[in-house]
Hints:
- Helix content is 40%, strand content 11%.
- It is an alpha+beta fold.
- It has a single domain, classed as 2-Layer Sandwich (BirA Bifunctional Protein, domain 2), CATH 3.30.930.
- A 4-stranded antiparallel sheet has the order 1-2-3-4.
- α1 (8-19) crosses α3.
- The longest helix is centred in the N-terminal third of the chain and has 22 residues, at 30-51.
Amino acid sequence: MATPHFTPGFFAFLRDLKRHNDRAWFAAHKDRYVADVEAPMLRFIADVGARLPSVARGYVADPRRSGGSMTRIYRDTRFAADKSPYKTWVAAHFRHRAAGKGLTGPGFYFHLGPAERWAGGGIYHPEMPVLTRIRGRIATDAKAWRAVRKMPLEIEGDRLTRAPAGFDPAHPFVEDLKHKDFYAGIELSERDVTSPRFLDTYLDACRAVAPLVEFLAGALGLAAARR
């Protein structure tokens, strides 16, 4: 049987960090963070990168410690009422390599913490020009959008209460046009995450949401996501 990427120590560290969210405690337990959280995350990202092309082409899984797919553990507290310096969860985002720095691009994602564990993909809070392009493709490419609606996952996120400006309130997909986010995924348990099969579970979630990611990539003029 394969060795699990994540052990119970992963979640134990994040729980302890929530109770002791200060720089002195983190510095004293930095070795534990590296061994139980950072190293398993980077190994998982590298293994995702080896297999993600079989699900979707053009998405980058970068296992670097800094500047790669893994999000930083450090919180940006400049404008936050909560000044605790560290996140109590970790995540990774696999973006399309053709998406420039100025474009909120579609991708695959996972988020792991004691309170919430989620895996899937799509696009979250896109800028208005990006959102308008996505809505425009929904409004004009009925065949492609019907294929997305057949996927086994429900699209999540914020929605408008009325049809967006410039779109027909009587359009057959008007409820979909109201979306402000376009992402979908699955909830996970700690047992899922610490299982030797978690890589397969994650890639299955990516496969399930790939029709949506492909549609978003096409709307933004990026290369097709799937083979």
